[in-house]
Amino acid sequence: MSAHTETALGLTESRGAGGRILKAVVYLLVLIVFAGPLLALLVSAFGHVKDPTQLSVVPSGLTLDNFRIAFDQGVLAYLLNSFLVVGFGLLLQVTVSVLAGYALARKKFPGMALVLVAILATLMLPEEILALPLSLILSDLPVVHLNLVGTLAGMIVPLGAWGFSILVMTEFMKDVPRELEEAARIDGAGDLRIFAQIILPMCKPALGVIGVFGFTMIWDQYLLPLLVSTDSSSYTLPLALRTLRIDPAVTPGVVMAASLLALLPSVIVFLFFQRSFVSGLSSGALKG
Amino acid sequence: MSLDQAEPAAASAAAPGVPGVRKPGGGAAAGRRRRDRRSGRWWTPWLFLAPALILFLYFKFIPMANALTMSFQDVQPYLGNRWVGTDNYATVLGSTGFREATWHTVVLAAGQTAGSMALGLALALLMEGQSRRLGFVRSAAFLPVVVPIAVVAELWRVMYHPTGDGMLNSLLGLVGWGPSGFINDPDTSMASIMLTGIWRGAPYDMMIFLAGLTSVDRGLYEAAKVDGASRWQRVWHVTVPGLRSVFSILFILAAIRGLRVFTEVFLLTNGGPDGSTEVVMTLIYKLGLEQNRLGVGAAGAVLLFVATLILTVVVQLLRRRESK
User: Is the Cβ–Cβ distance between A60 and A261 less than 8 Å?
Assistant: First the structure.
């Protein structure tokens, strides 16, 4: 057996039938525990589930009624809100981050250390703690005096300040070879062209990481949208789940159908970009 | 995340940088001096930084400063705020409600952290390897992390249905237990929230442990085997020490995640029944939004931030001392 397949438990070495059965049982158990509840959600969304006791992984007929009722309850509008927030929020976040990353990685200027420390410091600042003062700020933005409470813009604009993405971009852009930039400069290219045509195209892996992470983060947001939205017209889908559940006329099957719509986008993004996701996750955590 | 709330942000809080990602070739120092002379006007970098700086100012720094000032004020919208010194802090620290919420938060954070790390390590050890089938099981096990927290909470609410024919109760019934009230019973409500948190936290920890396992020196396994070490001796003496930095990172991440917990508690129990699951963030939310006592809420938030900060600094210092 080659060295790189050696594992801590050495489970791959177990050749006997007993070992193989044991492994299969363990994997099955893991699947039941972690994927089982999600399977129950999927099955219930398409089943005749009128009562919370009917949640099960065993299908109880196949129907689209739950989705039909969910759509009548305005779930499509909530879904649209969620997509607007994640679309514009991610666009803003990525744009701001690549611009800032360029300055921090490719330039040397007085005050740079201070800016870096300030951005790093915000990573230590849990969003939840800032949520209340942030929602007050949004009701009357200093200097410009805009009130963004009750609007989707109020959920979108704060997403632009995301230290994680800036740091990822900065680290990555530092490693783009200087020669490329030099050559372009001799040809008379300005900073904007160097940024857009030389640095940015070389940063695709990093863009993948911040895109995937940004998407999942924004899609998962709860407290800020909760504080910013004043009525159901600005609810995102995760917020609407609670209103649906509280409504006595809505059955758990309908809540599960809406939940399925709320989880599909982030699960799809994860499955498609698993590599970016896992590499960003593990390396980000492990380097410290 | 906050893939967090699986925490992509927090993940890098401990350490910026993406060494796992393929990077273009190494930098070159050649021609650096010439570049500096030609690198344009002094304000060019600030132009690139401007959007970030404005947004950070508006949505991070001003709110933080406001939280600090509000914590020393009696906040009265439209009437003007009144300076009250440390009254808010005295109110917060003196109230039984806040003390209980703090205790609940610590219990929940500790339980979720320990549970997720233990289960995550077990999963990582069991599922380390390169076969395609393993990759599938790992991906499936990881799904809870990417499911939005609001969905997780709604799903578990239904699973926790307190009658005998609720989903989890009928499973308990198979082995002759239950029915449990789960989140509806003050005796089990906290444990139920913890269980949901571990369900979502363990696969995250598993992924990080798996990444850590790849950096454990394979040669040491061989050496241990040659020396006649048993499987468990190998794990205990080679793997666990090799994962030391992973443990401390995961500890910080999970502890911070635990201290700021809000959404799952808000949706599963909203602090009930009988306040048995009230945590600091749900209390702050109620103080701020439902009772309009923004100053007191802000004082609570500042205290929570200080606790987070102290925890992070202490763990970092311990790590640094250890590595010396």
Answer: no
